[in-house]
Amino acid sequence: MPLDEFTLIKRYFEQCGSVTSCPEGAAGVVVGIGDDCAILRLAAQEEMVITTDTLVAGVHFPEQADPAQIAHRALRVNISDIAAMGAQPQWFLLALTLPEADQNWLEDFSRGLSEVADEYNCRLVGGDTTRGPLAITISALGSVPEGGGLVRSGAQSGDIVFVTGSLGDAAAGLAVIEGRSAATNTEYLLKRYWHPSPRVSEGLVLRDYASAAIDISDGVLADLGHIVRASGVGGEIALDSLPLSRSLIEAVGREDAIALALSAGDDYELCFTVPPDKVGGLEEKISEGLLVAQAIGRIVPGSGLICVDAAGQAIDIVDVGYRHF
Fold first, then answer.
1. What range does the domain containing 124 cover?
2. What pLDDT is attached to residue 13?
3. Share above pLDDT 70 across residues of the chain, in percent, rounded to a whole number
4. I need a surface site. Which of 32, 36, 144, 250 has the fewest CB within 10 A?
5. Full-model pTM
6. Are residues 107 and 204 in the same domain?
7. Considering the chain, what is the average pLDDT of its residues?
8. Over residues 70-82, mean pLDDT
């Protein structure tokens, strides 16, 4: 018997939003899945952050991809936006468009979604399902202390530019998935594509240090470019300082690894700027293992971005990054 919408939601997605009440004054779900709207409660003196991303089959992931992998990627990239604001993920909404209600597909998709929701303690509180070409839209919601959210527009000349993790791995993983790479040792690269790691704990630390932040979805050139434009400043990237994994260099070579790190996107690491007087404190947190981050450049007067080599000479790099249109 075909599944109706309400049976589908109850059978496959209710477990992702099992929290239905919360203590007085605490952040939580007052009314969740099953009503016309969710009712959510923020803790005292907190603000809400909201983000939305749509993933379309054939555009953002291969059409025949494993549904659990799709779910992981869809929710993780949204949580990454929450992390970039220095916020704590709390809830999410799911709008799912399916060509048909394939029960095996739904079972695997909901399992992957629940795994990520449990990992980040982020509960499903509502959404919608409809028939059509496969597409997943997730709206993630988080909380941050009043006035404590990180934004793109706070960078100032003299700030140091940092990134978390390593860059370029996910793009190399996508090349493997699409058959464009002959790399053999690909497990790490594939994991970096399908299971990006939202830097939530790092974002919480950065509330005390960063002047501006963004998650790297479109490549560090494009995304640091958003910071410098929003802040009315310029930026400089030291190519020799880009964090590149051994797996990436082995797969594509150092020159192509740098190109992927700059422009390929899908990293979902954090790029952030730190005032000079706070760099020492941040480096202490790095040495304590609270985050993995590396300085890759600096904010300068003017506008736009330049890349420099080890000798400090400007390198002609086209600022591209992923473009949606």
1. 5-145
2. 72
3. 89
4. 36
5. 0.90
6. no
7. 90
8. 97
**pLDDT tens-digit map of 3-49:** 666 676 666 676 665 544 444 444 588 888 888 899 999 989 999 99
Q: Which of 111, 145, 179 is the last residue of a domain?
A: 145
Which CATH number belongs to the domain containing residue 267 in this structure? Answer: 3.90.650.10
The token duo for 18 is 């099992």
Residues 303 and 167 placed together within one structural domain of the fold: yes
Q: What's the 3-state SS for the chain?
A: CCCCHHHHHHHHCHHHHCCCCCCCCCCEEEECCCCCCCEEECCCCEEEEEEEEEEEECCCECCCCCHHHHHHHHHHHHHHHHHHCCCEEEEEEEEEEECCCCHHHHHHHHHHHHHHHHHCCCEEEEEEEEECCCEEEEEEEEEEECCCCCCCCCCCCCCEEEEECCCCHHHHHHHHHCCCCCCCCCHHHHHHHHCCCCCHHHHHHHCCCCCEEEECCCCHHHHHHHHHHHHCCEEEEEHHHCCCCHHHHHHHCHHHHHHHHHHCCCCCCEEEEECHHHHHHHHHHHHCCCCCEEEEEEEECCCEEEEECCCCCEECCCCCCCCCC
Segment 137-151 mean pLDDT: 97
Q: Are residues 132 and 200 in the same domain?
A: no
Domain assignment present for residue 136? The answer is: yes
Same-domain status, 226 and 309:
yes
Number of domains in the chain: 2
